[in-house]
Amino acid sequence: MKQFLKAFRSSLLAVFIMIAIRISFCFSTSMPSLQSLEVKGHFSFEGNEFASRDFGNMVHSMPHAVLHPMQVSDIAATVKYVWEMGTASGLTVVARGHGYSLKGQAQVQGGIVINMMALRQNEVMQVNRGNLPYVDVSGGELWINVLHECLKYGLAPKSWTDYLYLTVGGTLSNAGISGQAFRHGPQISNVHQLEVVTGKGEVVVCSEEKNADLFHAVLGGLGQFGIITRARISLQPAPQKVKWIRVLYSEFSAFARDQENLILAEDTFDYIEGLAIINRTGVVNSWKSSFSPDNPEKASQFISDGKTLFCLELAKSFNPDEAAKVDKEIMSLLSTLSYMPSTLFVTEVSYVDFLDRVHIAEKNLRLKGMWDLPHPWLNLLVPKSSMHKFAEGVFGNIVRDTSNGPVLVYPLNKSKWDNRTSFVAPDEDIFYLVGFLTHPTESHGLEELLEQNSRVLSFCDETKLGVKQYLPHYTMLDDWQAHFSSRWEAFVQRKSAYDPLSILAPGQRIFQKSVSVL
User: Fold this and answer.
1) At 373, is the secondary structure helix, strand, or coil?
2) With contact defined as beta carbons under 8 Å apart, do 326 and 239 qualify?
3) How do residues 431-457 score in pLDDT, each as one tens digit?
């Protein structure tokens, strides 16, 4: 038996060595051929450290090459090249936007990274001002640039993310969620058409009317079915001004009830988000630099130390000639809410400044050297029926202060989402986005924050809350199957149809490319 085991181990080791040699051979021999591939842009084989980093700053995978495309055909030719090599090569491909993935999703060890930011430099945005206005944009374009271009025509996209320095293709591969999503749905619900490069290197134009399965697969598809090279985004008339409001609650039940009523009301605010604020000092005082208190005397007496509070953040868009009317509407809406009266703060800003509000915070964090810290963010989608139990178990218990980053808490209306896309959400009419947007501090190191995330996830599993991850990250196939649940089979079928060799986006760790040994 010992001799048999010894021989078995030796044979197994020989197989692994052959695999390693084969993969190494494939990589080493493929590079000269890749260099000779005819593209209008260029490949870089050195100085690619930027492609091994992302905003999460916790995973670092170095590619063999980075493609800097000048046109879509460069991307198609590169993917087709890898496709035609088949299983003889271990090469894989991933599209990288502005690098704001959290756990290496847009990285690839020893493969090819496509720098989508290069593509946008040669792609012109085209705005159509018809009855159903839209803009055609490159998948590598930043949303902030889309905003400024559309504003030239008095138009703007309907749904946003909180941070605008993200690429169109990146957010559409996930969902794109912010405080407007309760009304307009996420960004993936506001797309008319896509141009996609599949895992076979085919360039396909798709929409609800044409190649509909690919269209819905790619939206929220985590990059698994194709690379978004162009998108047609729905637009609406753009307002000039925004009334921006913050109020505080001491009870989660009142906070949640008011949010849910607001997102279901016909006449309501244009933007609704919330935050959990735990054991923070001088919360309302910190608002005074940007907001005006409704009652300065009472606001100055408010103490937040040691408390678990909930902030409701609201916005109403308008044009200058509507100011008086909008003020009345706001006061009417506020009269229905149960916030603490001494905590009402209001400001008025331009539409652009409101949408780009996180960029101001980014500048301050960069000055302090904090923007490039690790970001062990955890984003969850919690069913309404489980939200109170989640709040009771997590806020003030597992999470005992929020000094190391905001905790978002706000409801979404599932009727505004298209269940034909690849995106997975809890199966209830209302579910909450809960985002722990943390970074390490002197009092809370990275390992502590990761442990906190683990405890939150364990609590959700043990209490069977039916929670789904947004921007999901799993390392085990069983976890991915559980994430997609009844939709897993359809997800696999789409992968087989559009990327059968599993060439695309290996950093998601859902599928692994098979490599032939012999």
Assistant:
1) coil
2) no
3) 999 999 999 998 899 999 999 999 999
